[in-house]
Amino acid sequence: MEYRITAASSDDFGEIVAWRMEAIEAVFGEADEEMLTQLRAENERYLSEALAAESFLMCFAENDEGKRIGCGGTVFHEELPSPDFPHGRSAFIMNIYVRSEARHQGAGSAIITWLIDAAHDRGCEKIYLESTIEAAPLYHKMGFHDALGYMLYEG
């Protein structure tokens, strides 16, 4: 199946937030109403600033009937340059989400390919993501590998 991938714009703000909240629920499960209200407010704040600064890019996947069935996003930032990373431009791919009825039909691959191309267009040398266990095989197939050396502080 072919998918049409389109960049979200500030005109899509309400839909961007709705898709983000849907993805959060799919990954983390249901949360209490107070937590959801707080998460929505924080996501609205972040997205408002990041979309204006063009440090976040979101896209939608549409099926052949024009129905949006998935989304994905990338956070763009700069890190300190180093010999193996001379320009420091990075892309953190996140929020890859495809509705359950459309999974395993190529939409996730189409979203990831589109986001990788967008990162390359912006000169990003480092493209990385976090993965659920279920999505890891897709990311491996797309050319990502497990990176040693990263640790997460939980203090």
Q: Spell the H/E element sequence.
A: EHHEEEHEH
| CATH architecture group name | 3-Layer(aba) Sandwich
Give the termini separation: 45 Å
CATH topology: Aminopeptidase
Task: Please state the overall shape, judged from the principal axes of the Cα atoms.
Answer: globular
Query: What's the total number of strands?
Result: 5
Averaging pLDDT over every residue, what do you get?
93
CATH class: Alpha Beta
Largest sheet: 5 strands, mixed
Annotated CATH homologous superfamily: Gcn5-related N-acetyltransferase (GNAT)
Task: Kindly name the structural category.
Answer: alpha+beta
Number of helices, where a helix is a run of at least 4 consecutive DSSP H or I residues: 4
Total tally of structural domains: 1
Question: What does the radius of gyration come to?
Answer: 16 Å
Query: Which percent range fits the helix content?
Result: 25-40%
- What portion of residues belong to β-strands? 15-25%
Give the strand order of the largest sheet, numbering strands 1, 2, ... along the chain.
1-2-3-4-5
The stretches of 5 or more residues where confidence is low (pLDDT under 50) are none
